[in-house]
Design brief:
This is YbfB/YjiJ family MFS transporter. With 404 residues, the protein is mainly α. It has one domain: Up-down Bundle (Growth Hormone, Chain: A), CATH 1.20.1250.20. It is 76% helix and 0% strand.
Length: 404
């Protein structure tokens, strides 16, 4: 499909639908579909948790290969990953065999990670039209909204296999539109979309054999501070990944006894609506009050939502918890990746998301190993992890001196 450079207003929409394919459907359709699969296949909570964990392992692999420089986030990788993610949705319907399910979800996770980085690394941290970034990030919430709507609308007459096939068909449509997201066919060597411009006033090392040592010594305080800030930020992002994914994986499971297996997807629908509105809201809030205050507010609401879910014995409480989950997690993602980008860290999105992915692996694994029969306790653990994430993330932002 040819590029349409005369339609720049469609660019954020393409990014949004790319993230919808990667995240809202490729990764998160599993959440509203899980209660129906558990009921139909007579699974305990453990198989679902381990399959989710394998998907997160795949997501980590997808982000890590870019962070390590083994794979370029280029046009070929992006488009191939759109295809793999869509085919992976359909492949889930072939058989309930656990080895097959785990393998397919691992491959789908790799594709999701690659798409996420390919899109987010092309979203500028500072733009003349910052709402464009909010629109693109809003695709995650839109995809979640679509996922919940598919299960809620079709779950009463379609079995779990048909639901996955419906989702795959929608993903294919979105992929066609997202296909022309403006990403280079090849990334120039030793450069990234987020690399800072070189300082042309700095003397070169060629005129003086000792200039290299002098330049390294002069730059070392800044570089050391940036590395320290990135390390703190990454650690906080690890705890954020572990804390949020417990809510994302088990919110619908928690809602099952209250709403019923099919109607429980309504909580995911609420989360999708809140997630879709979140990026534009938090970008406006951060621009008005600064990144530190915006992240603090976002994290506090997220922790409160996790604790509220512990008392989720009524529909109203679960709906509020779902809304708070959706409204906060992508806000944290957008602002944290923006911080890493502003610090001038090469492949900041991939590096941060790799740590996020490790947290996502640890979170469901912890629940599967120790808390599978105590979902409420899992949400308490989520709240604790998110509180730690908030403290570390804010410390990283302040250390990096990037607050606006």
């Amino acid at each position: 499909m040819p590029e349409r450079p005369n339609s720049p207003s469609l660019t954020p929409v393409r990014g949004a639908l790319g993230l919808s394919v990667a995240m809202g459907m490729g990764r998160f359709f599993y959440t509203p579909a899980l209660p129906l699969m558990v009921a139909a296949l007579h699974w305990s909570s453990a198989p679902g948790a381990w399959i989710a964990t394998l998907n997160y392992v795949g997501y980590f692999i997808g982000t890590a290969v870019i962070a390590r420089g083994w794979v370029e986030p280029n046009r070929f990788i992006y488009r191939l990953s759109l295809i793999v993610s869509t085919v992976g949705l359909a492949a889930v319907a072939l058989t309930p065999n656990l080895i097959w399910q785990g393998s397919i979800r691992t491959i789908a996770g790799i594709a999701s990670g690659l798409i996420f980085v390919c899109v987010t690394q092309r979203i500028p941290a500072n733009s003349r039209k910052p709402h464009h970034g909010g629109i693109s990030y809003g695709g995650v919430g839109f995809g979640i909204l679509v996922s919940g709507a598919i299960v809620l609308a079709a779950g009463s007459f379609a079995d779990w296999r048909q639901l996955w096939l419906i989702c795959a068909a929608v993903s294919a449509i979105f992929s066609v539109i997202a296909w022309t997201w403006p990403i280079p066919a090849r990334i120039p060597p030793h450069t990234t979309a987020t690399s800072p411009k070189p300082d042309t006033t700095t003397p070169t090392a060629t005129s003086n054999p000792n200039a290299t040592d002098t330049l390294a010594e002069a730059d070392s305080p800044f570089d050391a501070n940036r590395r320290r800030a990135m390390a703190i930020l990454s650690t906080g992002y690890f705890f954020q990944g572990g804390g949020y994914i417990i809510i994302g994986t088990y919110l619908v499971v928690l809602a099952g006894p209250v709403f019923g297996d099919t109607a429980a997807a309504s909580t995911w629908l609420i989360a999708g609506i809140a997630t879709a509105a979140s990026p534009l809201t938090w970008s406006a809030v951060a621009a008005r009050i600064g990144t530190v205050k915006a992240l603090t507010a976002c994290y506090c609401l997220q922790v409160f939502g996790a604790l509220l879910a512990v008392f989720g014995s009524t529909p109203a409480v679960l709906i509020i918890a779902a809304a708070l989950f959706g409204f906060t997690f992508i806000g944290v993602v957008m602002m944290t990746i923006g911080v890493g980008t502003q610090m001038g860290v090469a492949n900041a999105s991939a590096k941060l998301t790799s740590w996020y992915s490790i947290g996502q692996i640890v979170g469901p694994a912890l629940v599967a190993a120790a808390l599978s029969d105590h979902i409420a306790a899992a949400f308490v653990a989520s709240a604790i992890a998110l509180a730690i994430a908030m403290a570390l993330t804010l410390a990283g932002v302040l250390t990096g001196n990037v607050d606006r």
